[in-house]
Amino acid sequence: xxxxxxxxxxxxxxxxxxxxxxxxxxxxxxxxxxxxxxxxxxxxxxxxxxxxxxxxxxxxxxxxxxxxxxxxxxxxxxxxxxxxxxxxxxxxxxxxxxxxxxxxxxxxxxxxxxxxxxxxxxxxxxxxxxxxxxxxxxxxxxxxxxxxxxxxxxxxxxxxxxxxxxxxxxxxxxxxxxxxxxxx
Length: 184
What we know:
By secondary structure, this protein is an alpha+beta fold. Helix content is 24%, strand content 38%.
């Protein structure tokens, strides 16, 4: 049986940009930058959302810009950055421990002030202020793992080889590119 016909090319293609590469080698604590290009097949136009995943624990992956407007058959450039520098984010359990310590400290002061009514009012006000500050601190720092274009981290990245997955999505059309990252 003989088959004939033309194959269908992918509607979206991610490739290294001019002078770019899909691999990088860095020392832990540094950033790797990948210059990439997105090309849509003729007839494909519209907004394309870019995301990255697979960053090593403790690394932050970001894409600039996080979305592109494609014109039929044209290419658009974007940059993927993987930052392996440690961040100062506290884990939710660490924030809870700090909140508990502050609350216990305010309660420990109560026996010293229980005889004076005016001081009780002052202590109540002080306790409420601490509770508000702790509540604000707990709700102000998210412990999330990712967003549409960023994967967050917080600790030193271990040496090794990692693969970062970049995706471009326009409606039901998706293209992916795997990036290689070596951390020394």
